[in-house]
Amino acid sequence: MGIRMTKWRTLVLATVGFNVSFLVWFSFAPFTEQIGGAFGLGLAQIGLLTSAAVWITPPGRFLAGWLADRYGAPRVFAVVLSYVGIFSVWSAFITSYELFFLTRLVVGSAGVTFVVGIQHIAQWFPKEQLGTAEGIYGGIGDAGVAVGALLLPRLFANWSGPLFETGWRAAFFYSGILAVVVGVIYGQWGESAATKAKATKARKSAGLKQWLHTATRYGVVALSLGYLMSFGVTLSLNGWLPTYFQEGFGVEMVLASTFMATFSLSAGLLRPLGGWLSDVLVRRELDLLPIFRGRYREQWTVICLTAVVLSLVAFWIAGRTGSVLLTVSVGLFVGLCCGFGAGAIFAQLPATFPHRSGTAAGIVGGIGTVGGIGFPLLYSTAGAAGFIHSGYLVVALAVLPIVLFNAWLAIPRRAVRAHVDGVLSVGVEQPQSVSDDDRSTTIE
Fold first, then answer.
1. Number of helices (H) and strands (E), helices first, in the chain?
2. Mean pLDDT per segment of 10 residues, for the chain of length 444 residues?
3. Tally of structural domains, the chain
4. Alpha-carbon dihedral 218, 220, 223, 224, rounded to 10 degrees
């Protein structure tokens, strides 16, 4: 017998599903040294494996967001969790590195569930609660990485059976089984939207022209790049930090994973606060940066993105001191800034594109994960060259133009049309909507 869904039950279901997705997605991170030893991998190859875990996610999120609008989030979430779980179980038995690499590529598509849950929550919550709800979902969901970093090494570091004599293989097997179970539950209990009319509107807006129109609006472009910064850095460090602390400071596996977990918890658990503060600024009409007067969500996003750049510079400086305690402490600050930034972006996004929240979230979420592909390669390349701390400075300088672009677009005369104007002109019939910030009628 099904459970009658409400917006809060939907939030719990989506958050649990996303948490399990991230647990399975990054279940390899605590065991990189052991996996490297089993397959004879060097540091650069481990960095490639870390990066490869994210390769499928960008295009996968483009598709998953559209599918969630078209067919409903519960169906999409259930399918993804089920096949990801099956491939995770399969990877536990593989002895060929090439086949292992391919199966973990598929497991890496677990990251597409993020945009599915974003769409699902947007179909249930009113605008004034969107930032908070999306922040809770994203933040606690992201914490699945921390749960994995804290629990998996402790549960499986000295594993001696049943089924496996190797801990990382057991971790892949049992986390995969968990994903399949949660996928079945999601498919059985989840409901697409609060009303049939809302689900129908989302489905009708999920055409190719509508997707192309949404993808090319300046608002989506700016937020996609901003998410590449905030979530991309989070994603890359979730996979890289255990290796960084082991190689850069000589820390053993369990402690290195614990240090990574503190970063992940900081980034995840503070993300809801970033979304909630965006809601507060709108409700109270607070201008933190008068140059962006009236654009409350946009100016908060610019502040958060600026903080990400500054925190990466601080992380580079801390690492060069050789102090593990200082580096871990600054890592917490990096996580805080990334969490605030991600929360701010996904408070702004569904308020700007309320009728295409899945499509817009898929594009922004997909591009955001590109940082998880590129940044680990920078970290590992710098490490292999003997400059293991310097990758963070390179990333900080590389993303600075993104902050400037978001600031340029946050100027009120541009911000009010960021969801209308774009890099391409695509003829699409537009639904009328009310901006979350200026309360004026605009065309979405």
1. 20, 2
2. 78 92 83 83 77 80 87 94 96 89 90 89 83 82 70 78 80 93 94 83 74 87 93 85 83 78 79 88 89 92 96 94 90 92 89 76 84 82 83 92 95 87 66 40 31
3. 1
4. -120
Report yes or no on 374 lying in a domain.
yes
How many residues are there in the chain? 444
Q: What pLDDT, on the 0 to 100 scale, is given for residue 434?
A: 38
CA 103 to chain centre: 21
Question: Facing residues of 434 across strands?
Answer: 441
pLDDT of 443 reads 30
- Residue 141 sits in a domain whose CATH number is 1.20.1250.20
111 close to 367: Cβ distance less than 8 angstroms: no
Q: Are 62 and 366 in contact (CB under 8 A)?
A: yes
| Distance in angstroms (rounded) separating the CA atoms of residues 52 and 380 | 13
Q: Is the dihedral of CA 419, 424, 425, 429 positive or negative?
A: negative
> 2 in a domain, yes or no?
no
By three-state DSSP, how is residue 56 classified? coil
Query: Does residue 34 lie within any of the structural domains?
Result: yes
Residue span of the structural domain in which 198 resides: 7-439
HSE-up (13 A, CA, CB side) for residue 354: 18
Would residue 41 count as lying in a domain?
Answer: yes
The model's pTM is: 0.73
Q: What is the distance of C-alpha 143 from the center of its chain?
A: 11
